[in-house]
Amino acid sequence: MTPNTPSKTSNLSHEGRRTTTIHAVGVYGASGYTGQTLLRLLGTHPQVQVAFATSESSRETLDGMELMPLADAPLDTVRAVFLCLPHGVAGKVAAEAAAKGVKVIDLSADLRLDTPELYQQTYKHEHPAPHLLPAPYGLPELNRQAIMGAAYVANPGCHVTSVLLALAPLARLKALSPDPIIADTKTGISGAGRSPKLDSMFVEVYGDVRPYNAGRVHRHVPEIEQELHKLQPDCGPLVFVPHVVPVDVGLLATVYARLKPGWNMARIRAAFLADYEHEPLIDVLPEGKAAQIKHAAHKNNAVVGIGPLVGDTLVITCAIDNLRKGAASQAVQNFNLMMGVPETVGLV
Amino acid sequence: MTPNTPSKTSNLSHEGRRTTTIHAVGVYGASGYTGQTLLRLLGTHPQVQVAFATSESSRETLDGMELMPLADAPLDTVRAVFLCLPHGVAGKVAAEAAAKGVKVIDLSADLRLDTPELYQQTYKHEHPAPHLLPAPYGLPELNRQAIMGAAYVANPGCHVTSVLLALAPLARLKALSPDPIIADTKTGISGAGRSPKLDSMFVEVYGDVRPYNAGRVHRHVPEIEQELHKLQPDCGPLVFVPHVVPVDVGLLATVYARLKPGWNMARIRAAFLADYEHEPLIDVLPEGKAAQIKHAAHKNNAVVGIGPLVGDTLVITCAIDNLRKGAASQAVQNFNLMMGVPETVGLV
Amino acid sequence: MTPNTPSKTSNLSHEGRRTTTIHAVGVYGASGYTGQTLLRLLGTHPQVQVAFATSESSRETLDGMELMPLADAPLDTVRAVFLCLPHGVAGKVAAEAAAKGVKVIDLSADLRLDTPELYQQTYKHEHPAPHLLPAPYGLPELNRQAIMGAAYVANPGCHVTSVLLALAPLARLKALSPDPIIADTKTGISGAGRSPKLDSMFVEVYGDVRPYNAGRVHRHVPEIEQELHKLQPDCGPLVFVPHVVPVDVGLLATVYARLKPGWNMARIRAAFLADYEHEPLIDVLPEGKAAQIKHAAHKNNAVVGIGPLVGDTLVITCAIDNLRKGAASQAVQNFNLMMGVPETVGLV
Amino acid sequence: MTPNTPSKTSNLSHEGRRTTTIHAVGVYGASGYTGQTLLRLLGTHPQVQVAFATSESSRETLDGMELMPLADAPLDTVRAVFLCLPHGVAGKVAAEAAAKGVKVIDLSADLRLDTPELYQQTYKHEHPAPHLLPAPYGLPELNRQAIMGAAYVANPGCHVTSVLLALAPLARLKALSPDPIIADTKTGISGAGRSPKLDSMFVEVYGDVRPYNAGRVHRHVPEIEQELHKLQPDCGPLVFVPHVVPVDVGLLATVYARLKPGWNMARIRAAFLADYEHEPLIDVLPEGKAAQIKHAAHKNNAVVGIGPLVGDTLVITCAIDNLRKGAASQAVQNFNLMMGVPETVGLV
Question: D159-320 belongs to which homologous superfamily?
């Protein structure tokens, strides 16, 4: 074993018969809300040892881990890194890690869009590592094969996860009509990050529901459409209105999709169950029940409610924890798949 | 002046030249959240004296007013009554009051639907006073002429007010396409009333966003469609998903409406401004701004945001205080119109 | 093994060398907030199998467990029962269980006070099972020896746990002066239970901080003083003012205690560390840090902040989750001690 | 009338017989939470015209008022200024205004402490305008005579207002024993200001109760003791623990004071009623009722609950809106007294 392949035999093994590999990992950008959640999840993951965690803004100690500047991180000592860094920065670290054979789960937006052109158009600056594109898209329920064993993956955005999970079984069967798809999401303010800003202050969020970036200007729109079009190229355009609601974590997507003729509730449910019934991290609600934020907050799974169907308009609700299935726990799920660890270890 | 014409000269008048009439009114069902808000508004209304307030559940004193049982209310001593009663009960009191020449502002659902048949279908019991139907619909911005001088009016529901205000200028110009209209509303829990129930408890509402009665099962759907069809009979059907959000008061409707060809943002804004620019209780936001609950909570006005327009899908946001423009302050507005008092007295 | 000794060999054991006993337990009153939290904790406890759960108000299924009426509960099939029942009712079930040799963790108030007289004076009705008094008081950090192997224990109230943990190290060393002890607590509304009532509704709790039962009228006062006097009989009387704050769970006690001459911060910290440093479920904060609800909410431990000392007045802060260390997780801790299971199994 | 005496005849007057003077005022530091509240109050004050409002951080328009930098403010054009500026800055503007004969209501801490020495010790920098000290302390219920006609006043801090109102009637009668006085306050986060900082972010405040600056380190302690000692020089020292609670506005002080022998509830209530019964902006609750934040939030008055008395320890609760009676509405009350306007104009 070379020095930079830091895997060791678990002290949990008995009598040398069952050995568990412990993987050393690093967390970049650990002081934000996503980073903190990720550190906590990794701290209880039986096959992970967090070797380092970085922060540019904080020298505090988080879950027993002293934060260090990115520049000091001993990248050579780990098998995988999680990047909770700003876009533009993450891609550079991803490229460096990939070059050293360290696996990358990038929670930023840098690897999510398939081409540097679409990235530049969306994020208004050059892509930091175009040679990594297109990266495997890290939504395991849609893309498990490509993630298993991948060298790096793009961990999806929180809105994207909820909207795609609400639509994927329909898109896969080309059930969506060419009409616009409405996605009205309600998200906890932790999604706006931990950097102090007026819009995230208690007094501002409390007592309010606030739409923002309505229509097609939110940066998650190209990401949703890119992945949706892989399933059904001729589906309608997305109309997306996210709203900040006064909760800390949680995200509910209420999606309104019109279907082609011939789709009734029985067929629709069958499509969702075919895709999700055996998914360990997706709960499909019984008929007549809608997903709500409480179903998923502080949990690692997504919850999907199907219906009602009004004429040809189907209402689908999908709830996730924006910091977990919308970020950190999905990153762990991707990590598990990439490393050959059973998919839900550390998550259930 | 007969004993049951309880109007007196205001002590605010000067030198006998300008006299202000003070109207005695009664409030039925004053102990609920709407009733309390109404009592507070009437308490500062310079041309109103609250002669009595009723409650079946409470003998408490509210804003200096001792509550009495409905059966003891001296209906003969007032010029107008406000009914914050359950449906089924309100209609009976409305009929009695109307028979005595006492003006009625009914905040229940009893007078809102135009026919006893639609009422029975919606509320699952016989209409308590079918001879009063159809009643003038008390949304002043749509129906001011019919309200002025009316003997009784049906005060609209809170969801209805916000959705209709979002759509009326378009419907009046027949701009809506026949496609489904999506109304996704977010409402404070006070809308569920003050009777203790599990779903309204702090622990249940806190940290959650909860859809309910999704699709077309909410009782406000027939009311919205009835009024909308008066403006544009061929508009599309409503798909309505209300959500409870963790705030006490406030309601935001995010409405997605597809328009007929030929409607661009300039023409759309012109339509809204033509209808609302001079409305004292509607604020139209500048282009690019969406309405949010904070714009309207604890205030008596509605706030409307127009756009964006995505293809032919227009996003309209409308925020109100569900207990005010969605109930009590709209009732005062109707009262003012019915009594010949300037429309915004007691409201601005 | 007799039929009503339902312990079985764990399927987690390897090769017959290490065997783990799984204990069948019953939960009475499982549909309240404490009962729900307890069911969740027991559901992940590796040495527990929940055989039944009762509710008088609900037939719902909780965490996969169908609730049954108390009268149908198969008491004979379990080794231990947890009672989340109203006072007056719990004592009867406790007596019945104790008579059958089933261990009892009583989360109600019925076994907390040492004499039937004090109980009657406090709860205004006769004690349901006076022969069980005095019962071992189930605050492990104060009373571990008596709990180990006990047939039944009285699980403390939430306010009591926080106030006693704030004072015990001082009282044990007779450090408290005879002056009044001030305990100002701030508690989440879940402490008021899951039965719908006006004071627990979202609209009422939101935006408020509400003192209640101020002084010495709260029923937890005799319980706190009884236990405190066992440690220091001559300490001063308690002045107790609980406040409801707008959070779902969590409790912070800010305690102001005057000390006898000779106590400085160094000696005070030493006293606390001597008692708590090795306690697995108590965290003592570094000097200068006060406990806050976030330290303990959704966690099973108590967090204690010591100081400042102002003259002879010491400020102690103690945060717990009122449903966990203040109720359900403390019950599991007691269960573990009673059954010979390592104390923190299922809790860390 | 000189150019810098901007008073004009009101257009509300009738026939020249009753004239109302309208005073031009300026607001410095209008973009913070206090400044915003003050601008709203002044906007509806019938005898005030806001001539200018300043902000160093914002060029936004607030309530129709364009904000300008402090340096551009036309101080000569107004009769009075309200200073919502940081300490250190406010004192300089106060001195400049006072020199020009413009009345000053200083909402900062600069004029609150009577000596430059105590100020320097508390705020760790030199006093910006020592010649203005001691300034009349602007708590009208304690100090009305000195405020009437004053050239400048020090508007009290929010914690100070609530704690002093809870203690003043006792201190005035020398009823307090020499024992420590405990003040445990619970305050909305708007008290921490509108500048973005981590501790004020929604995610941090939500779900928490957080003590801070416990003991005697909070800068309001010297201010409280200074004023209290004017009433009773031999009262005990203050032990002060403020807590942030998850509400936007409102402050509750729970005060525990020991009394000299001979004080019973009847005598205590008599003392409070003698001082407060005729105060227009203080409500004394009936016996047995404690003040809660909802009593005072969004209102201009203070609410005081007296008792219980436990031995010689009296519990007093005092609720205010920290931005109103704790800041902006108290400033208007002071302004009214200084200008000879009836005290509650614009406030009730």
Answer: Dihydrodipicolinate Reductase; domain 2 (3.30.360.10)
